[in-house]
Amino acid sequence: MLKAVAVITSSEGISGKIFFTQEGDGPTTVTGSVSGLKPGLHGFHVHTFGDTTNGCLSTGIVNWQGLHFNPASKDHGGPEDENRHAGDLGNVNVGDDGTANFTIVDKHIPLSGPHSIAGRSVVFHEGRDDLGKGGHELSKITGNAGDRIACGIIGLQE
Hints:
Elements: E1 2-8, E2 15-22, E3 28-35, E4 40-47, E5 53-56, E6 88-94, E7 99-106, E8 121-125, E9 148-157
Antiparallel strand pairs: 1-2, 1-9, 2-3, 3-7, 4-6, 4-8, 8-9
């Protein structure tokens, strides 16, 4: 079994931990607990780069290329869509207390191999991801989920 973790931080008081586990060639299970977010839905993605030297802005190129992890060069979509970035994990629902506890199982984010997410980053966005179906000019690129408000680098564990 492979395991990884991302420690979520932000300058806005958002914090938490996201754990990743994968058995063999099976799907990866993502289990997280994050606090300090505003209630409602927030876009949640794996971004291309594991670089937080400029906060969450350095997790993907600002001109949108290389933003969400996308080794197959597909359009942005939802987790259940065939046409989606590998890193498109949809939305996390935050309760009235500002906390989100969630589990996601996804076959597009392996922890090993040529398309591994190890060393990349996870990002929470300020708004809801429209899953590529919102009709906005950014829908098929980012899900029009707004600014990056918290992030962490995905590191393998022993």
